[in-house]
């Protein structure tokens, strides 16, 4: 049994593609779907917040001479998250999972509108909920959307899937001597400007005492270990590290 009744799992768009590539790699999506299924089978209610950077990032138009306004580009990025959500939904359903895609931008032909009470009801019925389109507003990252949904849906923890083992003192791909932290508090993350989530997301979690677990989803079984409360990745909370 999972010690957490309900979790929010944040997946970046890059987790849907092969390393260094763009688009959707179904091997990657299927790997995620299998892990999420095992985690849901443990009894934990799971809602996923999806990024879209593998398809398009709104920020890529910032400061260019393109005729696309930045706000429009952000909306385009939100639509990219819906594409990823639909791919993951089909992968989960092929494994026998009951799944709902809920979008912050209304598009009734492909997804339900995000309504907090309805999302909670789906979770209570053991459906896996995939939350797409961020918050529905431009200039808000999917990290911040994940923090907001975690609070709205009264999750026990926000878990962020990454390609590295947790939070390091520096980029481990550039510095092989970077230190991996097992625990951190919010204040330390902000003071050291550690690259965990954007500053707004960290501030929301700090204000509402929402713990964050950053871990490597690429290692098979780690999503299940995370929802079981096993020692994996870096735990960020209000408690100073031991």
Q: What does this molecule look like?
A:
The protein has 242 residues and is α/β, with parallel strands linked by helices. It has one domain (6-232): 3-Layer(aba) Sandwich (Carbamate kinase). 34% of the residues lie in helices and 19% in strands. The chain has seven helices and eleven strands. The protein has a nine-stranded mixed beta sheet, with helices on both faces. A two-stranded antiparallel sheet has the order 7-8. Helix 1 (26-41) crosses helix 2 and helix 4 (142-152) packs parallel to helix 6. It is globular, with a radius of gyration of 17 Å.
State the gist of this model.
With 242 residues, the protein is α/β, with parallel strands linked by helices. The chain is 34% helix and 19% strand.
Q: In angstroms, what separates the terminal alpha carbons?
A: 27 Å
Query: Based on helices, strands and strand pairing, what is the structural class?
Result: alpha/beta
With helices defined by DSSP (H or I, 4 residues minimum), what is the helix count? 7
**Sheet of most strands:** 9 strands, mixed
CATH superfamily name?
Acetylglutamate kinase-like
- DSSP, total strands: 11
* CA-based shape: globular
Q: Considering DSSP H and I runs of 4 or more, what fraction of the residues is helical?
A: 25-40%
């Amino acid at each position: 049994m999972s010690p957490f009744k309900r979790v929010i799992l944040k997946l970046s768009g890059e987790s849907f593609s092969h390393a260094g590539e763009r688009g959707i790699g179904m091997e990657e999506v299927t790997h995620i779907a299998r892990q999420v299924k095992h985690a849901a089978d443990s009894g934990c209610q799971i809602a996923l917040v999806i990024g879209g950077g593998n398809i398009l990032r709104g920020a890529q138009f910032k400061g260019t001479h393109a005729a696309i306004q930045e706000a429009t580009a952000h909306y385009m990025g939100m639509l990219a998250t819906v594409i990823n959500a639909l791919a993951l939904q089909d992968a989960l359903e092929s494994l026998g999972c009951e799944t709902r895609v809920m979008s912050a931008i209304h598009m009734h032909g492909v997804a339900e509108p995000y309504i907090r009470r309805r999302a909670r009801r789906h979770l209570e019925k053991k459906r896996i909920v995939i939350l797409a389109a961020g918050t529905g507003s431009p200039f808000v990252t999917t990290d911040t959307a994940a923090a907001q949904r975690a609070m709205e849906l009264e999750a026990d923890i926000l878990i962020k899937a990454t390609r590295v083992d947790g939070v390091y003192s520096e980029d481990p791909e550039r510095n092989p001597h970077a230190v991996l932290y097992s625990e951190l508090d919010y204040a330390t993350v902000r003071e050291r400007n550690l690259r965990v989530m954007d500053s707004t997301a960290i501030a929301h979690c700090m204000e509402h005492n929402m713990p964050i677990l950053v871990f490597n989803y690429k290692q098979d079984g780690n999503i299940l270990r995370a929802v079981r409360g096993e020692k994996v990745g870096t735990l960020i909370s209000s408690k100073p590290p031991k």
